[in-house]
Amino acid sequence: MKTGTSLIIDQQAISNSLNRGSQYSEVEILEILQRARQLKGLEMDDVAALCSISNPDLLSELFKTAKDVKEKIYGRRLVMFTPLYVSNLCGNDCAYCAFRSSNRGIVRRALKTEEIASETASLINEGHKRVLLVAGEAYPKEGFDYVLKAIDTVYSVKQDNGEIRRVNVNVAPLELEEFKRLKEHNIGTYQIFQETYDRQVYSQVHLRGPKANFDWRLSAMDRAFEAGIDDVGIGVLFGLADWKYEVLAMYQHINHLENRYGIGPHTISVPRLEPATGADIASNPPHPVSDLSFQKIVAVLRLMVPYTGIIMSTRETAEIRRETFALGVSQISAGSKTNPGGYSEANKNTAAQFSLGDVRSLDEVVADVARLGYTPSFCTGCYRLGRTGSDFMDLARPGEIKKHCDPNGLSSFLEYLTDYGQPETQKIGMKQISNSLEEMDEVPRRRAVAMLDKIRNGRRDIFC
Ligand code: SAM
Ligand code: SF4
Fold first, then answer.
1. Structural domain containing residue 452
2. Is 195 close to ligand 2, i.e. is its CB under 6 Å away?
3. Does the beta carbon of 310 lie inside 6 Å of ligand 1?
4. Nearest to 407 by CA among 367, 429, 379, 366
5. Do 406 and 350 lie in a common domain?
6. Cα separation, 170 vs 439, whole angstroms
7. Which of 243, 346, 349, 447 is the most buried (most CB within 10 A)?
8. Considering only CA atoms, which residue is closest to atom 2 of ligand 2?
9. What is the pTM of this model?
10. Separation of 430 CA from ligand 2 center, angstroms?
11. Which ligand has the shortest distance to the CA of 193?
12. Do 340 and 423 belong to one domain?
């Protein structure tokens, strides 16, 4: 397929835009923030100008605007998920990753079907409903079918009160035909990070294997859309190149997808480099991103693409994660392990992909999030009702989606509390549910009350 990836990212245009953006006056920046409040999205120079803010007053204005936009669209919901690493076999040599092929110091394994089933059972017993299935780029002898079988296995496991209801997937870029098969296996989001949009840096850190091909990776989302997958997630591994450049490159990538397919990505992930065994660069990032810049990234993205979910993983500490909830994050992982077998095995000797900043259990994170006034949501309603891609955007843009998400968030949260919550978490959670009901408009509140009653009466998986 001809993808014309050189047309997707224009490095010169980004650098020109960053130059112009750094010259905006205070008044002009305040005007951009005013426009951002209207949820219409921003021009590339506007984004560059927001990235260049350093004046503390303007910075707090940026954060305040991002907070208001986040609340307007997402309310106080935070969607919960966890990664499920099925394999650390990998044929690539990414300088920052413990799974890189040149790292001989780790135990390699691809979980067998029974092992994937027991990992899934452990996650269900914790209360999870959404997983992100992750693998290195090398599969056991059945090839890509290994991934498809793994997805089917996760969906097939049923426990007393639960099952995994949505499997998102983060695996290496696929051929068009493979994407078509992936879609047939009922995935939620197909996610892949470009890592860096700077070609030169990209080639310096991707030393061997198929991932060394920048264009093949950059064109992955085009193939996914061509194959009919309309729910994709992009991301950058922050720390490899200048973060302002990366934000503008994401802007260009999103524009390309919107222009060609009518919709952009459903989510953006913002991983920052974390230490990893056998990967020195991970401990010494060439372009370290400070905590303040990291918050700025989240706030700018929130205004740049107001309807796109922002994912914050457990790479970050609990403190940083808390800061970013208010600035725009809409999905978080919790209780994560990044070693295959990490959830169910006593003998956890397989190496993790990188070190985690937040090692709390799902229940601890849920309690913390609810104490802060957010509703942890385990909802999988949109995806199961086929509200994805442009159907989702048609509801999201006029603000209609909240009428579904708010009640769904509450009913899935009550289901979690009832079936899995610790007594203290239940107490905090019930308070959060009643506070949320008070703040809701009449129609969604009535809907939510009816759904909550069903959960109390023993029904499960109630969504609208
Ligand atoms: N192997 C596939 C790939 O590379 O696209 C998919 C999964 S990979 C295990 C998931 C992501 O982890 C990568 O895209 C990369 O952004 C991130 N990652 C790798 N090493 C990391 C590190 N040291 N710190 C933080 N994130 C890292
Ligand atoms: Fe393999 Fe992905 Fe790690 Fe690269 S980031 S070494 S492709 S698992």
1. 402-456
2. no
3. no
4. 379
5. no
6. 36
7. 243
8. 136
9. 0.96
10. 41
11. 1
12. no
Distance CA 365, CA 314 (A): 10
pLDDT digits (tens, 9 = 90+) for 32-61: 999 999 997 799 999 999 999 999 999 999
Structural domains in the chain (count): 2
Q: How far is the CA of 159 from the centre of ligand 1 (A)?
A: 30
Domain CATH for 124: 3.20.20.70
- The residues that bridge with 312 in the sheet, in sequence order, are 332
Q: Last residue of some domain: 333, 359, 385?
A: 359
* Count of Cβ atoms closer than 10 Å to residue 444 Cβ: 20
Confidence of residue 330 (pLDDT cuts 50, 70, 90): very high
Q: Please check whether residue 236 is in contact with residue 250, taking contact to mean a CB–CB distance below 8 angstroms.
A: yes
Measured in residues, the chain has a length of 464
Q: Which two tokens stand for residue 76?
A: 């106080």
Q: Which ligand is nearest to the CA of 102?
A: 2
Q: Is the CB of 18 within 6 Å of ligand 1?
A: no
* The Cα angle at residue 276 between residues 171 and 190, in degrees rounded to 5: 15
Mean pLDDT of 189-194: 98
Instruction: Decide whether any atom of ligand 1 lies within 6 Å of the 251 Cβ.
Output: no
- Final residue of a structural domain among 329, 359, 389: 359
Neighbours of 211 (CB within 10 A): 23
Both tokens of 38, joined, read 């209207």
Tokens of 134: 């992750």
